[in-house]
Amino acid sequence: VQLQASGGGLVQSGGSLRLSCVASGITINGKSMDWYRQAPGKERELVAQSNSGGSTHYSDFVKGRFTISRDNAKKTVYLQMNSLKPEDTAVYYCYSSYYVLWGQGTQVTVSS
């Protein structure tokens, strides 16, 4: 039972990355799935939610730049990140509130 996040890396300001979170041993169909991030010296914060009913929610600091989506058949949740800024630098984690399960995190670094 795990969530495996990938897709992080080093990108210049204004660039894009797409993160993926693959679930194994669980089903994400009908379950809310979240992306969080944690920057050095800061608390972990919610980035985006894909709710069980199909709606999405974004924190103000990523609205209009990030998009969360999912492929239930592939048990995968995505986070498309555009117009990246240096302040987006953090470790990004996927999370299932239903299973109380965190992924291992993937590092995103945005250079200025």
Describe the protein in words.
- With 112 residues, this protein is mainly β.
- The protein is 0% helix and 53% strand.
- The protein starts with a strand and ends with a strand.
- Strands 2, 4, 5, 6, 9, 10 and 11 form a seven-stranded mixed β-sheet that branches.
- The mean pLDDT is 97.
- The radius of gyration is 13 Å and the shape is globular.
Radius of gyration over C-alpha positions, nearest whole angstrom: 13 Å
| N-to-C span | 38 Å
Mean pLDDT over the residues: 97
Annotation, overall tally of beta strands: 11
**Low-pLDDT segments:** none
Shape: globular
Any chance you could write out the topology, listing elements then pairs?
Layout: E1 2-6, E2 9-12, E3 17-24, E4 33-38, E5 45-50, E6 56-58, E7 66-71, E8 76-81, E9 90-96, E10 101-102, E11 106-111
Give a short summary of the structure.
The chain is an all-beta fold and 112 residues long. The protein contains no helices and eleven strands. It is globular, with a radius of gyration of 13 Å.
Question: Notable features of this structure?
Answer:
53% strand, seven-stranded mixed β-sheet, mainly beta, four-stranded antiparallel β-sheet, 0% helix
